[in-house]
Structures are given as C-alpha cells and as structure tokens.
Amino acid sequence: MPPHAPLLSASTSASVSSLTRSRVLGFTVLLILPLLLLATLPWQPFLTGSLQSGWLWWPYALTRMVDIPGIGVSGALLLLLTRYKLKLDLTPFVALSCALAALLASDWVLKSLIKHLTEEPRPYLLWLESQALIPAIKSFYASSVEMRSEQVHAASQLLALPEWLGNHWQKEVNYAFPSGHSIAAISLAQFFGLIWLARAPAGVWLLPLWALGIGLSRMVMGMHWPVDVLASAILGSITALLVAHWWLHRY
Predict the structure, then answer these.
(1) What would the pLDDT profile of 67-123 be if each residue is shown by its tens digit?
(2) Which of 122, 123, 132 is nearest to 159 (CA)?
C-alpha cells in the first residue's frame, strides 16, 4: 500500500495544478457575466402577458430540477456522472458526496439568513398588488404564510392561471433576495464544473448553460429580480469554489 501513495499524491497534485487561475476565472465569469449584463438592462424579464402561455411550462420544468425533490435527483445524477467520468473509488466518491451535501446545506443557511435580513418582495407579488389582487405588500407579508398562500391562490384563480403555475406561486410567498433555486444551480455547476475541468473536462460547458437557464426561469416566472439571481450566482460560485478546491486537494 505505501508504494502507491506517492503515485496518488503526484496524480492529485497534477490534476489540481491543471486547474489554473485563468481556467477557474473563465468558468466563473461564464456563470456570472450573462447575469450581470441582464441585471444592467432596463427591463424586467417577468412576462406578465405570457402567464397563460403553454411554453412557460418549460422554464417551470427547469426550476423544478433544483427544488425539493428535484435537487436530490439532480445532485445524485451529477455525482454518479462524476464518478463515472473520473473513475472514482468508494472513498473519494463518499467524500465528494459529503462535500456536496455540506455545500448545499451552507448555501441554504446563507440564503435563508439573507432573505430575512433584506425582506425584498417577489416581483410577482408586487405585480399582484398593482392589480389589486392581494393586499398592500406590507400587510401581505405581515400575515401568516398560510394566509399569504390562500390570497395568492385566490388571485391565481381570478387570473385563470395554469394549475402548476398557481401552485408554484402559492408555495413561494416568502422573500426574493437572494434566489435559493439559483444559488443551488450555480453551486452545482461551479462545484462539478471545476472538478470536471481539473480531471475530465468533456461536456463541462453544458453545466453553465443549465444553471443559467434555471436562473432565467426564476425571473421569467416572476419569482426573482435579475439582481437576486446575480447575487446568488456570486455567492454560489464562491462557496462551490472553496469546497471544490478542498476536494481536489485531497482526492
């Protein structure tokens, strides 16, 4: 067993060194720059005129990939794909799984804390308020979660929204900043993206496209402002970078 240790160490060192600062920066910029550009545009992607459109189900399907239980399925598939791509033994695979769980848990705590500190209303709720379909936004948020859900349900029925969209709105009656779905998607893309870049880069550029699609879906459905998703991308990129760096240096 000892004779193999130097080999493992050299392999790990080589894979970490192959992940240069320029590659890390390039990949991170790919995750953040499109959202930064979107946040500077003088328009809101929430398409109030398309709420009854059938195509809106596709952004909804994307967003479901990182809610519960979608986040578990997406995480498991990425873990298994990474094990296949990197030919991981059990010990590094278990460590990878634990690192991912710790990353997502820390993201959840971070975004929950910031939401309670900022208390930013969601775009769709401000729009419902402007249509006199829910009470004034301060009164709305002062009521219980159950009451808020009932008020949004009544509004969705008056608007004749698709059932899936009405149900989604009912569940999302908390605050907007930052986006929990986006921070999860960006963290997954950054975490696995950096590991793939270091060890098996084939297909790595699909991850930012997937994560950015989820971020855009949150805006299109009125869940978040562009700056919410941008902040989530920055936070998720940083936390995932730290955890991916830890794993790459040890395995």
Answers:
(1) 999 999 999 999 999 999 999 999 999 999 999 999 999 999 999 999 999 999 999
(2) 132
Closest CA to 187 of 92, 88, 81, 78: 78
Which phi and psi angles does 120 have, rounded to 5°? -90, 125
Distance CA 243, CA 251 (A): 12
Q: What amino acid occupies position 142?
A: A
User: What's the DSSP call for residue 172?
Assistant: -
**Where would I find the H helices in the chain?**
5-18, 21-40, 57-63, 70-86, 90-118, 123-130, 137-142, 145-158, 163-171, 180-199, 206-220, 226-250
Name the residue among 124, 141, 142, 121 with its Cα closest to residue 133. Answer: 124
**Is the preceding omega at residue 2 within 30 degrees of 0, hence cis?**
no
CA nearest neighbour of 15 among 188, 191, 200, 192? 200
Q: What 3-state class would DSSP assign to 81?
A: helix
Summarize pLDDT for 24-49 with one digit per residue, the tens: 999 999 999 999 999 998 878 898 98
Residue 63 burial (10 A CB sphere; 0-12, 13-18, 19+): buried
